[in-house]
# Entry
Amino acid sequence: MPYPPVPFAPEFVPILEIVAPAGAPVPGPEDIAAMRAGASGFVQPVADVIAGRAVDAEDRVVPGPAGQPDITVTILSPAGHRDRLAAGGPAVPGLLNIHGGGMISGERGMDTARLVELVLALGVVAVNVEYRLAPEHPDPAPVEDCYAGLLFLAGAAAELGVDPERLVVMGGSAGGGLAAGVALLARDRGGPALAGQLLLCPMIDDRNETVSSHQYTGIGTWTRELNLLGWSSLLGPAAGGDDPVSPYAAPARAEDLSGLPPAFIEAGSAELFRDENVAYASRIWAAGGNAELHVWAGGIHGFDVYAPDSELAAAAIASRLAWFRRVLGL
Amino acid sequence: MNVADYEPVPPVPYDPELVPALAGFLDLVERIPLRADTIQVNREHFATIVPPLEQLLEGRRIHVEHRRVPGPAGDPEVEVTILRPEPAVPDAAGIYLIHGGGMMLGTRFFGIDEVFDLVENDGVVAVSVEYRLAPEHPDPAPVEDCYAGLVWMAGAAAELGIDPQRILVSGTSAGGGLSAGVALLARDRRGPALVGQLLNAPMIDNSNDTVSARQYDGIGAWDRNNNDTGWNALLGERRFTASVSPYAAPARASDLSGLPPAYIEVGAAEVFRSEAVDYATRIWATGGQAELHVWGGAFHGFAGFAAGTTVADAADAVRSGWIRRVLGL
# Structure
C-alpha cells in the first residue's frame, strides 16, 4: 500500500466493524437517497433528546438567501431564558450550528444532542440551521443557506437574548467546512462579527491531494470515495480541478486567511481530513491569526459522534469547552 | 510552508489570560538575553530559580536515589535521579525525563516536579538524567548521555521494579528535542523499546527559519535569538551543513517511520510551533501514531508557568490523559 494509514485507536475498532465494515461497495450518486434515509433513522425528536433537561426548543422558519426559499432553524435555549430576559436578565452567547453529512446527506436533528449539552454546560443559545443539500442544490446553496442562518441569529439577537458580540459558528465534517465558509463570508461581506469558529474535522479541501486523503481509501467512517462523491455533488466537474472553486465552498482554496475569528480545529489522526485541517490551522497562524489545533491519536472521523462514551471523546469535548470559555469570556 | 510567501509575518497574539504569566516567565527565567557571551551568567541565574529537590519533595511519599551509571562508550558516567513510590509497586510504568534549557542550561531537577503526582499517586518510577551541556560539550554529547541513561534504565528494569515494555521518554523544549533524538537512536540501534515519546514544545529544527521562528524574533518566551544561541552552541560550525545529525536535530531525520507513539504539544504563539506541527505531520505520513495539540495564544513553556489559567489547566488535563492511556494507568 503506498499510503499506510495511521492506525485507528483500539477503542474504535469494534465500532468501525459495525458502521464501516471493510469491503463495503464504493458509493455512487445512486446511493445518496439511502444514505439520507440511514442518517434520518438515527435522528430522534428534539423533545426526546432533551428528555426533560432544562432546555427550551423552538422551530422557526426564517428568511433564506435573497431570492431563495426560507430556511428552517431550531433554537435551543436554557430553560426560562426568554422569561428571565423579559425580567431584565442578561443576554448570553449565541452559537450557529451546521450539521454534517458530506454536503449530500444529514439533517440538523443529528446535532441536537451535541447542542443540548453545550446549552446546559455553557448557558448559551444555539441556532441549528437546516440547509439545502447537493447534488439537487449545488454550491452556493448550502453555504448561503447557512450564512442566512447567521444573519437571522445576529438580527434576532435582542429577541433571542443573545449577545451579538459573542457569536460562534460551529459544525462537524461538512458542517465544519460550511462553518469555515460562513466565517469567510462574514469577513468578506462585512457581516456579523464572530467571536469564534469551532471546526470539528472540517471538510474544506475539494482537491483530495493530501497524504491523509489517500490513507483512508476504502477504510474508516468517511472514506476517500465518499469524499469524492460529496465534492463532485457540491461542485460538479469543477471539483478538484484547475477551474476556480469558491473559497466559501472549499475554504482550503481561500488565498487569504487573515482577519478571521479565533478558530478551534479538531481532527482525528486516523482520518481523511487530518492534513487539510492541520494545513488550515498553519495558514491561519502564518497570517498572524488565532487558532487552536487538536489532533487526537487514533481518532476516527467523527469519533465523538460514533463513540460518545470513548476516552478520546471525553477528552476532546473537555478541550472544546475550555476553548468556548476562553473565547466567550465564561 | 515557504516562509517567503508570508513576509512580513505578524505574530499570533497571546491569550489575554496568559499575558501576566508571560511577563512572569520573562522576569523569572529570561531576565538576561541568552547570547554566546551570557550563557554562564544565565546558568548561574537558572541555579537560583530551581528549588532544591528536598524542598520540592517535602511531604511527598516519594523515595529518592541519586546514582552514577555508565555513560556513552569511552565517556564519563552519567548521573541520574530515581524517584520511586513509597511503598514500591511491582511492574511499574517508567518515565525517563530529559530536562530543558536550550541544550545549554538547567539540571535534571528543572521541571522534575511535573512527575511527582504520577510517582506518588500512580506508582510510576521516574528517572531524570543529567546530561552534559553545550557549548563545552557539543553534539553528540547531550543526546548520547541521554541515550546512555535510557539504556541503563531499561537494563535495570528488574532492579527498579519497572515493566520494560512500559517506558516513556519525556521532555520539554530542549528536553523534548533530546527525547525525540533518543527515540530515533533507540529505533536505529535496536535499543530499548519505548511505549511513547512525549515531546513538549520540542526544539528539533536547527534551521530556526520557520514561519513561527520568524514570528517570534525578538518577542516572547524563548525567542528566535535565544534559539539561535542554543543551536550554535550545540552544533557550532556544523550547524548549517549537511552533516547535522538527525539525533541532534530530529527535523533533519529523513525517515520518521517505526517510532513509538508521539505526543506533541506546543503553543500557537511560540517559535517551535511550525517545527512541532511539521514533525507530527511527517510521522502521520509514514502511518505512525502521533497526537498533536497546539494551544491557542500560548507562549513557550506556558504549561509550567500559568497554572490556574483555563488554557494551562486544559493542556495539563489533556497531557495527563495521554500519559495514562499510553502507560495503561
